[in-house]
Write a structure and sequence with these properties.
Mean pLDDT: 97
GO cellular component, one term: cytosol
Protein name: Phosphoribosylglycinamide formyltransferase
InterPro entries: Formyl_transf_N, Formyl_transf_N_sf, GART
Bound molecules: glycinamide ribonucleotide
Strand content: 25-35%
Oligomer: single chain
CATH superfamily: Formyl transferase, N-terminal domain
Number of domains: 1
Structural class: alpha/beta
Number of strands: 8
Number of helices: 6
Helix content: 25-40%
Order of helices and strands: EHEEHEHEHEHEEH
Keywords: Purine biosynthesis, Transferase
Pathway: Purine metabolism; IMP biosynthesis via de novo pathway; N(2)-formyl-N(1)-(5-phospho-D-ribosyl)glycinamide from N(1)-(5-phospho-D-ribosyl)glycinamide (10-formyl THF route): step 1/1
Length: 196
């Protein structure tokens, strides 16, 4: 059966741990999902923060990294218009948000199919402090979510979740490291599911 090429663009804002994991696990590799063979190309990464550590990670992995600082634009609309102009020629099949800490408006979301990872069992703990908030809660069942992006924060249709039962004695550092482990396991699988 023919192989379909799938082109991904990854957006990030900071550390870039999920971005690097996705590149290691998916870039230039072939997968068979429900009988369909697909080959993944990460065609570029985009950072909205010129200080992001992930920029160096992308360079080390020989992935083009565009830097589009949101601070250079007067409005969200101007920022997203430029993002769209820069991403469109890359012809992505999917936009993968990996620690991209900007809300995307309908302008962007109506142009590109986009997915996001969030470090909580959504709909719990939306927003920028999800790991801390789930750590501070009394929930024993914790985890991570990958969902379609819509114009509302951390709110689109669910693609996959991964869960674990924590020990309430765990410290924050251990708790966070287990959340990131779940993310690194889940996101590549969820991307393949979304592409299919
Ligand atoms: C990840 O934990 C990701 O789930 C979270 O930011 C972190 C980025 O880390 N995203 C959100 O909170 C989105 N609302 P990374 O840059 O090392 O991948």
């Amino acid at each position: 059966m023919a192989t379909t090429n799938k082109r991904l663009v990854i957006l990030f804002s900071g550390n870039g741990g999920n971005m690097e994991n996705i590149i290691h696990k998916l870039h230039h590799k072939e997968f068979v999902v429900n009988g369909n063979t697909m080959k993944i190309d990460i065609v570029a990464c985009v950072s909205n923060n010129k200080e992001a550590f992930g920029i160096q990670r992308a360079k080390n992995l020989n992935i083009d990294c565009l830097i589009v600082p949101h601070k250079d634009f007067a409005t969200r609309e101007d920022f997203e218009t430029t993002l769209i102009e820069k991403i469109t020629p890359l012809k992505p099949d999917l936009i993968v948000l990996a620690g991209f800490m900007r809300i995307l408006s309908p302008l962007f979301v109506s142009v590109f199919k986009s997915i996001n990872i969030h470090p909580s069992l959504l709909p719990k703990f939306k927003g920028a402090n999800a790991i801390q908030e789930s750590f501070d809660s009394s929930d024993r069942e914790v985890g991570v979510s990958v969902h379609w992006v819509n114009e509302e924060l951390d709110s689109g249709a669910m693609i996959m979740q991964a869960k674990r039962i924590r020990d309430m004695d765990e410290d924050f550092e251990y708790f966070s490291s287990k959340i990131h482990e779940l993310e690194y396991e889940l996101y590549p699988q969820a991307i393949l599911k979304a592409l299919n």
